[in-house]
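haha ok so turns out i had the wrong file open the whole time. this is the CORRECT one, sorry everyone. sequence first:
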Amino acid sequence: MMPDKTTNDDDDWLVDDEPAESDTGKQQLARRPWKVLIVDDEKDVHLATRLAIKDIRFKDRGLELLNAYSAEEGYALMKEHGDIALVLLDVVMESDDAGLRLVERIRNELGNQTVRIVLRTGQPGHAPEQEVILDYDINDYKTKTELTVQKLFTTVIASLRAFENMLTIEKSRQGLAKILDGAGDLYHLYSLKEFASGVLKQISAILDVGMDGVLCVENGTEITGRPALEVIAATGAYETLSRDNDFTGNLELADAISQAFRQRKNLYCHPYDMLYICSQNGREFVVHFSPPWPLDDVERSLLEVFCQRISSAYDNLYLYSQLRNAQQATVVALADLAEFRDTNTGEHVMRVQKLTDALAAELKDMGCYPETLSREFMDMIGMASILHDVGKVGTPDNILFKPGRLDADERIVMEQHATIGSHILQKASQMCEGVSYLTFGAEIAGGHHEHYDGNGYPLKRRGQDIPLSARIVAVVDVFDALLNKRPYKEPWTMDDTMRYIQERSGTQFDPQIVEALSRLVRENRLPFALDE
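then structure:
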């Protein structure tokens, strides 16, 4: 079938784009071989093909030959190995058109448009060349008698070159799509550690490998003179670094990361590949990742683009953090204003904040109100709860500090604090687009004295019409008030306090929130000591 004939210098042009001399270091590294699938029902054809092409190298990569003896076996291998570059495919096997049916399955069922398919037939009459080329998505059609060693060499190299070009386009398309999706995800993260973990995850997705990775920042200088590296996130073999931040056993890695910081650029020195990222506010990061092979030009280009998106996403995170800090400062200032006349309420609102967060988390664990207990809600509810009594700035001292029960007229004045607080915070919240601490604060201030059965104040709302934030703080506020000394009462015991709250489950309080509090008390999981 294929006479023993070696290649000659006339075909050197086929492989003339080998790595340049400057890449000799990279040439020494292990490279993934090109996968070539031979599908033929004749064992002799497999043996002859293997002998003819096993030593071929293209772009400093050898061949990994896979063998299938039927169209069904070929399909299984194609499904298992999505990176096969070339299929040398017989037409007539278990049926006269088995090879043609396999072509259709590869292109349509597997959706693989990049693999190059060369049909080889010993019975050209069963599948006329023009008809096959027109009707099937193949890349070449040869009779087995045509494929000398020389012709097979030419066919393999040309097919690998075409596959590489197709793969470059497809990898670029998929990589850019992953970058857009991944960077979009990064814009929704709220903390630096989350951001760092997201970066490692997206780099792994872009390269389509599971890998070890670590994201660091420089944090001063160690006594030894070596830059101190702070690990923000780590995966795989580097996970221990995220716990102890100790590079003692990874000094080469530490030196490579420090080099990227010094040179302020990406370094590709496999296995020490580094991405250098600098944000607009001057914060610098280095990401080390270790794919099992040296990166090709397409992968490097994609990562360069991703670096730009990472920088923008971090700037967004920084601005979000600054905005959030400004909002928190506003909340604390308003709470301090309300507490200015009463030094005892400071500890009360801190306990309210802690227990509100704990109750929200418990409700989420219980599976209650999943649509309301969003990430945004969980992040803001505790801080917003400290504004529950901000309206008391409008309450006269003789009523606010009266050591005893209020009469009917005084009660009316006192109850106005809910409306006052709601109006103050609602007006302020309208100056911020979207949901903010002030938004939840307005809900809580206006609704934490409403009762579940509709007998509270100021609007006599009932059940689910009362915002969940206010229903949580309603329980927390009473719980803390009963347990601690007030101008008009001595502290109650935990048993009496819980009895009081549980007796009002379904009337004054939301039953599910009462149950969440009961679980925290019963399991001794309150977020503060009772004598705080």
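The beta strands are 34-39, 63-68, 84-90, 116-121, 140-143, 212-221, 227-235, 267-269, 272-278, 284-290.
again sry for the mixup
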